[in-house]
Design goal:
single chain; mainly beta; Rieske Iron-sulfur Protein; Alpha-D-Glucose-1,6-Bisphosphate, Chain A, domain 4; 2 domains; 6-stranded antiparallel sheet; 5-stranded antiparallel sheet; 15 strands; 13% helix; 37% strand; elongated; disordered N terminus; binds FE2/S2 (inorganic) cluster; oxidoreductase activity; Rieske_2Fe-2S_sf; Rieske_2Fe-2S; transmembrane
């Protein structure tokens, strides 16, 4: 964890998932950032939510539950928690009972920018820096997310060896793989687990996109072999 950063630092915002992976009022996506396990979802109105993946009742993973409009319902006893503040608002076994005010999901800062969902784990997270929106140029396309069994620093070193340079947003590296222009958004998921979200100016069905997929697999092999 970066202990030098302040809550206002761009380095505290982690690119956890492509925004398009989360459908309003529908699915729950599992995520990680700095070792923290996350449940990612959207309210019916589209507001992004990033919660600790643990129900405050009996610690069952929220990712096993379901989204019901603006609430996330736990799979075990069905307690429901509200988007935004994570407050428990319904206990189905006791429908007449007011849910205790101190029963609350742990909620982290979440914002959509540049086609990605970004999460800030700081308790006093400030508003997301505007430069996040510049992490990926307008009109670029998502290619894929690489899962790497390596630390984030090893991944940064490997990208630097491939000629990538750090971009405007922390975690955004610009370069090319097999001559295809690429931006790599690095997510420090766990000490030996890093996700790299690859974006490119190549269009989805182009030969360049196929080339990038292949180059990405080669990059993963190179990094994991060196690790
Ligand atoms: S463990 Fe989630 S409602 Fe009981």
């Amino acid at each position: 964890m970066n202990t030098d950063a302040t809550p206002h630092d761009i380095s505290r915002w982690h690119p956890v998932a492509p925004s398009a992976d989360l459908r309003p009022g529908a699915n729950i996506v599992a995520g990680f950032a700095e070792g923290q396990e996350l449940a990612l979802w959207r309210s019916a109105g589209g507001a992004a939510q990033a919660w600790e993946n643990r129900c405050p009742h009996r610690s069952v993973r929220f990712t096993l539950g379901q989204v019901i409009e603006d609430r996330l319902a736990c799979a075990y006893h069905g307690w429901q928690y509200a988007a935004g503040n994570g407050q428990c608002v319904s206990i189905p076994a006791h429908p007449a009972m007011q849910a205790p005010r101190n029963v609350c999901a742990k909620v982290f800062g979440a914002v959509d920018a540049a086609g990605m969902l970004w999460v800030n784990l700081a308790q006093d997270a400030a508003a997301a820096p505007p430069s996040l929106a510049d992490a990926v140029p307008a009109g670029w396309h998502f290619c894929r997310t690489l899962t790497l069994r390596a630390g984030a620093h090893e991944v940064r070193d490997a990208l630097a060896r491939h000629g990538f340079v750090a971009g405007v947003a922390q975690g955004a590296w610009q370069g090319a793989l097999d001559a295809v222009k690429t931006i790599a958004l690095i997510l420090d998921a766990q000490p030996q687990l890093t996700f790299v979200h690859l974006w490119t100016e190549a269009s989805p069905d182009s030969d360049a996109m196929k080339t990038l997929h292949s180059a990405a697999r080669n990059l993963r092999s190179a990094i994991e072999t060196q690790g």
